[in-house]
């Protein structure tokens, strides 16, 4: 009785699992995301949510990035493509990708994982692209490896 304790937290672990109102995401950032099926109606504006906040360099507008990503089509709940399948991350300037990435990736930090839900107007719009249907809402889970 009468004892006092002082707790000091030296390391905080942010869980790599997230259950948003739209989709459940799990999986370690070293292996790739595991996505549940989308829930409810697709959002009509860009959704950008950090699942894991990185601690490295921050992405500026128009920067070049190296990422791993997984892409799911909202309408089917199917994985359309994933860089994790090949095991090779991809690099590109944000100026060369869809508007959803140009608006949703800046501010992300190296080592982070971010959920992007991209409405058709910020994705491929009325144009189908390979396995992606016209007017498709796109779900990306992006693991930022490097800025620049």
Walk me through this protein's architecture.
InterPro entries: PPIase_dom_sf, PPIase_FKBP_dom. This is Peptidyl-prolyl cis-trans isomerase. Keywords: Isomerase, Rotamase. There is one protein chain. The protein has 148 residues and is mostly beta strands. The chain has one domain: Chitinase A, domain 3. It is built from two helices and nine strands; from the N terminus they run E-E-E-E-E-E-H-E-H-E-E. Mean pLDDT is 88; it is low at 7-16.
What's the gist of this structure?
With about 150 residues, this protein is mainly beta.
CATH top level assignment = Alpha Beta
Could you tell me the radius of gyration in angstroms?
17 Å
Largest sheet: 6 strands, antiparallel
The domain tally reads 1
Name some characteristics of this structure.
9 strands; 148 residues; mainly beta
How do the strands and helices of this protein lay out in sequence?
Elements: E1 18-19, E2 24-26, E3 34-35, E4 47-52, E5 64-73, E6 79-82, H1 83-86, E7 90-93, H2 99-104, E8 113-118, E9 138-147
Antiparallel strand pairs: 1-2, 2-3, 4-8, 5-6, 5-7, 5-9, 8-9
């Amino acid at each position: 009785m009468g004892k006092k304790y002082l707790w000091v937290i030296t390391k905080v672990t942010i869980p790599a699992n997230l259950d948003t109102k739209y989709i459940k995401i799990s999986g370690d950032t070293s292996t790739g995301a595991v996505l549940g099926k989308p829930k409810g109606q697709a959002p009509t504006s860009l959704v950008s949510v950090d699942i894991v906040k990185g601690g490295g360099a921050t992405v500026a507008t128009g920067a070049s990035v190296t990422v791993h990503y997984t892409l799911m089509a909202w309408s089917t709940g199917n994985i359309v493509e994933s860089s994790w399948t090949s095991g090779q991350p991809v690099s590109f300037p944000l100026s060369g990708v869809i508007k959803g990435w140009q608006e949703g990736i800046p501010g992300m930090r190296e080592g982070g994982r971010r959920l992007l839900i991209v409405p058709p107007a910020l994705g491929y719009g009325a144009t189908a692209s390979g396995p992606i249907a016209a007017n498709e809402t796109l779900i990306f889970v992006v693991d930022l490896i490097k800025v620049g």
